[in-house]
Design brief:
With 158 residues, this protein is mainly alpha-helical. It is built from four helices and three strands. The chain has one domain. The chain has a three-stranded antiparallel beta sheet.
Length: 158
């Protein structure tokens, strides 16, 4: 599907970004859209996979959300901000790359939830006439970029 690697690790441990202008523009826009959704519609069903229930009992879940909900939300917002602040760079630190990984995963989860994507969804056989084709292509792109980032980060492991 995509030919050229967009993210690679250097011998010094930095991560090189090779993103064309149109991909950088997309990665400037998407975090802002998700950030706005997090602020304006925290109960939106497409966000449910970002904040899965930690406890089965409603009372325990409510206590957990009161204790941790704000911190979890703020962490997601910080990760989105890192993408916005670094998308025009050609290199990322490992810390910035970890934030990108979080934000890319969050973006994928929201798009995938909206599309009801599951393990059975085959993106290779995507029909261009399918009304969901642009969103499925976005999901595939985000998945591909996340995979490259994971591979680059993992290349530093022993």
């Amino acid at each position: 599907m995509f030919l050229e690697r967009r993210i690679e690790r250097t011998p010094t441990g930095e991560l090189v970004l090779r993103l064309p202008a149109e991909e950088r523009a997309l990665l400037r826009r998407l975090p802002a859209e998700l950030g706005a959704l997090l602020g304006a519609a925290p109960d939106d069903p497409s966000l449910r996979r970002l904040f899965p229930h930690a406890y089965e009992r409603e009372q325990d879940e409510s206590a957990y959300q009161q204790l941790m909900g704000g911190e979890l939300l703020e962490g997601r917002r910080r990760a989105l901000t890192v993408i916005t602040e670094t998308v025009d760079r050609n290199r990322l630190s490992s810390t910035e790359a970890q934030a990108w990984l979080t934000a890319l995963n969050d973006l994928r989860l929201v798009v995938g939830t909206r599309l009801s994507v599951d393990e059975e969804t085959l993106l290779e056989d995507l029909d261009q006439d399918d009304a969901r084709a642009p969103d499925l292509a976005l999901y595939a792109y985000l998945s591909w970029l996340q995979e490259q980032l994971v591979e680059a980060l993992a290349s530093d492991l022993p």
